[in-house]
Amino acid sequence: MPLWSVLLAVLLLGPALGPGYVLSYDMVWVPDLALRADALGTGSGLPRAVPSDAVVAVLDEVVPGMVLQKLVLLGSLVVGGLGAARLAPRGSLVGALAAVTLWQWNPLVVERLGLGHWPVLLGYAALPWLVGAARRWREEGRMPGVLPVLVVVASLSASAGLATAAVLLVLANRKDPAQVARVAAVALLANAPWLVAGLLHAGAALGDPAGAAVFALADEGALPGPLAALGLGGAWNSEVLPGSRAGVAAWLSTGVLVLLVAAGWRGWWRRLGTREAGGLLVLWWLGWGTAVLTWAAPAAVGAVTAAVPGAGVVRDGARILVLCAPLLVGAASQGVVEARARVARAWPGPVPAVPRLLLAGVLVVWPVTLMPDVAWGLGGTPGGGLRAVSYPPSYEQAREAVESAAPGDVLVLPLSSFRAPAWNGGRTVLDPLGRYLGRDHVASDELVVSGTVVAGEDPRVQEARAALAQPDPQGRAAALARAGIGVVVVDRSAPGGEEAGAVEVAGRRLPVADDLVVVEVPGAVARQVPRAWVVATAAGWGGWLVLLLGPLLRAGQRMSHRRQQ
Amino acid sequence: MSAVLSGGIATIFATVTTTVVGGVVAAVTVVGLVNANTGTEGPSPANVNQPVVQYGTNG
Description:
- The complex is a heterodimer of chains A (565) and B (59).
- With 565 residues, chain A is α+β, with helices and mostly antiparallel strands.
- Chain A has 2 domains: 2-378, no CATH class; 393-520, no CATH class.
- Chain A has helices at 2-13, 37-40, 52-59, 65-85, 93-104, 107-115, 118-140, 147-153, 158-171, 177-200, 210-214, 225-230, 248-296, 298-307, 325-346, 353-370, 375-378, 393-404, 433-437, 459-468, 473-482, 497-502, 531-564; strands at residues 21-22, 388-389, 409-413, 418-419, 429-430, 441-442, 447-449, 452-454, 485-491, 508-510, 516-520.
- In chain A, strands 6-3-9-11-10 form a 5-stranded mixed sheet. In chain A, strands 1-2 form a two-stranded antiparallel sheet.
- In chain A, α4 (65-85) crosses α5, α4 (65-85) crosses α7 and α5 (93-104) packs antiparallel against α15.
- In chain A, 56% of the residues are buried.
- With 59 residues, chain B is mainly α.
- Chain B has a domain at 1-38.
- Chain B has one helix at residues 2-38.
- Chain B is rod-shaped, with a radius of gyration of 25 Å.
- Classes of the chains: A alpha+beta (565), B mainly alpha (59).
- Chains A and B meet through α16, β4 and β7 of A and α1 of B.
């Protein structure tokens, strides 16, 4: 089983596992991520990378960022696949192998990999294990020791944390109020860092309604969004859509999956029992229903995100489809077992070895057969797929220059969020420069999708824009310094970089090669984080640490007791 | 006698059908995977030379 899972993962990631960093859309990894205010949640922008950035910043002190990224990508696929094998009927190797393939080789995994949503993939990997842990908790009445760690790993972003909380709450024993309360407490503590940070930024957490339309569940070629969602597809960005999903293979794939789920439904329900199967059905409805809502009524979703702080977390409709996966994979793997049994019953006499093996092979590999073009780093996607690349030497020089500069945050120019650098093969990525430089930074958080501009929320970006609009270099430098900016870094190779570089800011120009310009702005006023923010953030992280370290400390105590006895 | 014969024909027919289906699926899978691995690699066509690099494209 592990061998098949690793083989599929390596086949899918391919060149992404080579030396270098995989930089794709929202996936930005750097050699040494600093533990900045942004990462903890006290920055000026919405806490989009809380707690994931802080976790990476701590872990990459032990494991180099490049290696850590490979471990996360490979690990999330393999751990999820091995967990999925447990959703299959016991004792059926073919059913388990089919579950692994379906879990690891589907549009959701491919599209989230392409979009760089690795915390979502980690949450997805933990899902089948959470289902098992919740079952043990219901049956034994005691929280499994591994559950808090699982929940923490599965909650490294807001959307992943919400999906994880939904799984825990739906699968808890509702007849046991104490268990429900503990489940709620675990979910709350695991999500505390981003929840607290989100509340502190509530004033800026109202989303641009335009975002709901562009990030909604999307059609895949001729396959309407709701049907694509049945097979876990429908991500908004057609640049990560494999060619095979835009054609007849997507219809076939959806059809085969629905047939297998239908074939296995009764056996699956009987095997799991009404409590668990019903819970997974509720989760499926929650995932599919929410996704389809973003497709059917984007205006209404937009109105909600514009009125309710933080509601924008659900605007990416296909992301919530992770909730559908346990039911689909469990029932489909049951369907595989039922299909083999039906063939055996219909066969005149005992089934010879060759047809038996061929049938098993078809039932196990069909997801790969119908979506083969994603192999080897999502090569079949228009966005260019996943490749490991090296940062140019100028990035390291810029980091050293910024380290030596006077205090103050970094302003990254030009004021646009994404880059498609030649050294990354022209593939789109969220500008990695700010994260690479190691200081808190101000960068555009405006998003452009098919020409539609989705406004950002960070008020400091507007402050920086106003400062740059001053008529002379001295005026600009003074306004930037008042806004807490101590260094301006211009990427002249980015679209708009030449124009941004032409807007002079008075200050000392630090020597950096190639296309990066680093200017030290004198007299920056350090940005003050209110004391109440610091206290609230510390409390959120404190709860998170208690949840994470509590079971480890208890296990250590138990071991030491045993040794003394 | 005729039952044995028809049973034998059915077995042969089922075996041939399964082999053909299995063979086709195996061939399609292998060809698809090989094509994916040997496809030409180039820069993302969507964003090169645009005034602003877009986050993505709908539709």
